[in-house]
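Reference record:
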Amino acid sequence: MTDLPDLIGPEAEPASGGPAKQLILFVHGYGADGNDLISLAQYFAHVAPDAAFFSPNAPYRCDGSPYGYQWYDVWMQDRDERLGAIRSTAAIFDNFIDQQLDRRGLTEESLVLIGFSQGTMMSLFTAPRREKAVAGIVGYSGRMEAPDLLKDEIKSKPPVVMIHGDSDELLAVSEMETAAAALRECGVEIDTHVRPGLGHGIDEQCIRIGLEFVKNALGS
């Protein structure tokens, strides 16, 4: 038993029609909800037909979007306060991961996290601090929170791919390279892709890059 809140959101069962052999979690961005990314399941099911999909809502209602959710307040300026909020939410997300793996009878090597924006931040903060490495992380249009702390706190080294538009109006593409440098310094295998002309979003090429990564990560 835990006092941590449970996360809910849309799900999709494996396209194969059989029991789930892998699990793909979509982690949405600030002000959105699980419905924002679950439609991507139709694409990733082609390379992972035995994967179940879950796109949870973040635990907190978003002040800036009355119908959306946030993992933490992105406008928090005080570093200690911001880091405390991130750690608190990471514990909730970490517990959710454990619950979903237990529910499906799966282990970390069968799990991929696919994050967008703040969802990328949560994935990059949470997964490397887990004892066992997940199969991989796909990070769209994101950044890394507190990259200077990773070297002292990293426990596992899942492979990562990050994709970022060079016209992103919310998060500069340089944020991707800052995250990649921190991960590489810790021995994490990471590939980065810059999408010319893309703003804060996901285009067809982003999806194709993610598909190839997931296919390799899950060995499917």
Summary: Residues 144 and 179 are 5 Å apart (CA to CA). The chain has seven helices and nine strands.
